[in-house]
Amino acid sequence: MPLVDPFGRQVRDLRISITDRCNFRCTYCMPEEGMVWQPREELLTYEEIERIARICVQRWGFTGIRITGGEPTVRADLPALVEKLAALRPASGAGGRDVDLAMTTNGASLGLLAPALRRAGLRRITVSCDSLRPDRFASITHRNALHRVLDGIDAAVAAGFAPVKVNCVLMRGVNDDEIVDFAAFGRDRGVEVRFIEFMPLDAQGAWTAQTVVTYEEVVRTIDAVFPLEPVDRRGSHPAERLAYRDGGGTVGVIASVTRSFCSSCDRVRLTADGQFRNCLFAVHETDLRAILRGGGSDDDVAAAIEADVGRKWAGHTIGQVTFLRPDRSMSQIGG
After folding, report:
1. Percent of the chain having pLDDT more than 70?
2. Residue 19's domain is classified under what CATH number?
3. Residue range(s) defining the domain that contains residue 183
4. Are 189 and 154 in contact (CB under 8 A)?
5. Which one of 41, 45, 58, 112 has the lowest number of neighbouring Cβ atoms within 10 Å?
6. Are 269 and 15 in contact (CB under 8 A)?
């Protein structure tokens, strides 16, 4: 039987954060200093992660799993986890397809890891990169590592990942003058750039509506240089995709703020310390780690997930007086 929330949306996508640590300090994600890292023993083991994912795939036919962080590549022996998750198959009658296993990363370690991750069964990679200018990249991430990220993107393409996507969080007055530069980069490298509207999950709490670079602005700016046309319907995917009229590939915009896609959301989240979240902006979590380590059965885990999904709301209320900001920042929730 499928897992369905109170608004009739079938849940099919599990996003798994495997660490709260990162080798970057992106300003919209975590503070440069002062983070208190979760002790190693509080993080889910790979076996515990695989168990929760298996329940989702075999019991409800989940078809998508995405590994996130923090930065997932800082966790030791990552290919071993990929191999476990890639081996998952829906049970007979669960109604699902083979799992589409993907990962979001800052790309800095892909030059070393991309081939091993591909061999282990990872299907797709998304690399986060918010500037193509070395000085600005260093200002945003507090790391002089743009060359490593660009090398990582090339390594992912060379390893056979398809598609390779590049996520760029746009922030007004910070990097909104690089929209066309990123579009040209995607066309030249054969990767799909996806621009993300800045969301109120930054560690500093500096988000305002004025810092959001909207879908309309992004499309208008690119279309003036590289004419665009709409492509297939988005469905439950977060990005609205457009194609270059000259055949130069595609580009996407994740308009979480101005063109919310909550009505078609099919994803849930698992934090690195085993908390289940039914929405990125959820203010309530369910402690699956306690169930696992307390001797709970698969049925107990499933019942807890079903109960949490049963509380899922219609959508976030960013920009409205009813909006409640989650206690955790993006790095603690998982990208």
Report:
1. 87
2. 3.20.20.70
3. 3-333
4. yes
5. 41
6. yes
